[in-house]
Design a protein that fits this description.
The structure holds 2 protein chains of 2 kinds. Chain A is mainly alpha-helical. In chain A, strands 1-2 form a two-stranded antiparallel sheet. Chain A is elongated and about 55 Å long. Chain B is an alpha+beta fold. Chain B has 2 domains: about 30 residues; about 230 residues, no CATH class. In chain B, strands 1-2-4-3 form a 4-stranded mixed beta sheet, with helices on both faces. The N and C termini of chain B lie far apart (about 80 Å). The model of chain B has no long low-confidence stretch (mean pLDDT about 85). The chains are: A mainly alpha, B alpha+beta. Chains A and B meet through helix 3, helix 4 and helix 5 of A and helix 1 and helix 7 of B.
């Protein structure tokens, strides 16, 4: 799921710090914004916009963190609005709903652990690529 | 690009697969979800009725209650509804009102019986309230308007009687949203058709009091709190237009007259 690669250049100290912060940003936002998944995306998006003119290493990791948040947003928003329609609407609690919440929780947990792992390794200057998100980031983010 | 697309497909497959496998487990029984919500509803319904009982006079006269039971039995038995689970309370009050409380408490005011011209009109309203029970509209409305935490504190006995009275007022004097009201109206029409009772009378009741409520707002609680009565009457009429109804009377004239007479006679508190 997570692989370590050699980056095209050796990033400097200030770059690894900023790149690592992009993951920490999404992590803090994840904790703060659990009931409202859009907050995570907004936080990661704002950090991405702030660093889009940064070095390649920083941009690359900001993009990967942002993309990971996008899929979480879809998954968590579904769970959020499903819950709202149960509390305030006509929908009833079902085994399918509980199974969805557990699945969403498991995927969030995997993402949470992967984010911490990546933040630590990126801080050390190690380039970490996630399964799918790494490949997608390589397609989007190009070296200038 | 192809590899990334394949990986995306695999992630989606992994997510859906996990969800599918987990949804095979009967979480509702495993986590006792239904049991817990049933218990909360039971406590809440009994608590509300105990509060209401203190301020209202319940008519216990067997001759009257048994007549009302006959109507309820016809609707429930013909529609596969467990009649024994419904706790019918006939209350002496001039207000034209009937409402359902949690845990299947059905409160009918004598003023409503007095206002009905025939048994079919009364059955229509009973059917409407039963429909709210069957579709779990009552708990949904309470959670929506009062909030889950307030309800849980009520069942735990931590909330004051003032909150309890306010929520009773909410159930007895305000309507559900239009969608739920229409659902209850049409379901009531279905109940009546299966029971051999004319649903058009129910529509007539709504139509008649829909017009009169403009002049007598205080007494016609059931109508004034159920807005758009004329529209609802039209919806019922158009719903039953092509349905075949085999009408069979439920009560004899003597029984109906007895019900109406006692509904008028007993003094209010």
């Amino acid at each position: 799921m997570i692989t370590e690669h050699t980056f095209s250049y050796v990033p400097g100290e200030h770059e690894t710090e900023k790149a690592s912060n992009s993951y920490l940003m999404s992590l803090v936002a994840l904790i703060a914004g659990l009931p409202l998944p859009i907050i995570n995306l907004l936080a990661a998006g704002m950090f991405y916009l702030g660093n889009r003119k940064g070095t390649y290493f920083v941009r690359w990791h900001c993009t990967q963190a942002l993309l990971a948040q996008c899929s979480l947003l879809i998954m968590n928003s579904t769970g959020f609005w499903w819950s709202i329609s149960i509390i305030f609407g006509d929908k009833a609690i079902s085994s399918k709903y509980i199974a969805y919440l557990i699945t969403a929780f498991l995927f969030n947990l995997v993402e949470f652990i992967a984010t911490i792992y990546t933040a630590i390794h990126t801080r050390k200057g190690i380039h970490v690529e996630w399964w799918f998100y790494g490949g997608l980031t390589n397609l989007i983010c190009k070296a200038e | 690009m192809k590899r990334v697309g394949l990986q995306l497909l695999l992630i989606v497959f992994l997510f859906c697969g996990t969800w599918f496998i987990l949804s095979r487990v009967d979480w509702m029984s495993l986590l006792s979800v239904e049991k817990t919500s049933k218990k909360t509803e039971e406590k809440l319904g009994d608590f509300y009725w105990s509060v209401l009982k203190k301020t209202e006079i319940e008519i216990h006269s067997d001759s009257v209650v048994s007549v009302l039971d006959t109507l309820l039995n016809r609707i429930c038995i013909k529609n596969g509804i467990k009649v024994a689970t419904i706790k019918l309370h006939l209350v002496q009050k001039n207000e034209i009102n009937a409402f359902a409380l949690p845990n299947r408490h059905l409160v009918v005011y004598s003023g409503l019986i007095n206002a009905c011209e025939n048994e079919s009109e009364l059955c229509g309203i009973l059917g409407h309230e039963i429909a709210h029970m069957e579709r779990n509209h009552i708990m949904k409305k309470l959670v929506k308007e009062v909030g889950l935490s307030a309800l849980l504190s009520l069942t735990a006995g931590n909330a004051g009687s003032e909150i309890a009275k306010k929520t009773i007022r909410l159930l007895s004097s305000s309507a559900y949203d239009r969608k739920l009201e229409t659902e209850a109206d049409l379901l009531s029409a279905d109940y009546l058709i299966k029971a051999g009772i004319d649903p058009e009378s129910f529509a007539n009741f709504l139509y008649r009091f829909g017009i009169e409520s403009n002049h007598l707002p205080d007494q016609l609680s059931w109508i004034s709190t159920h807005p758009d009565s004329e529209e609802r009457a039209k919806e019922i009429v158009s719903y039953i237009k092509d349905k075949e109804i085999q009408k069979r009377p439920v009560l004899s004239n003597r029984e109906w007259n007895l019900l109406k007479a006692i509904a008028v006679d007993v003094p209010e508190k």
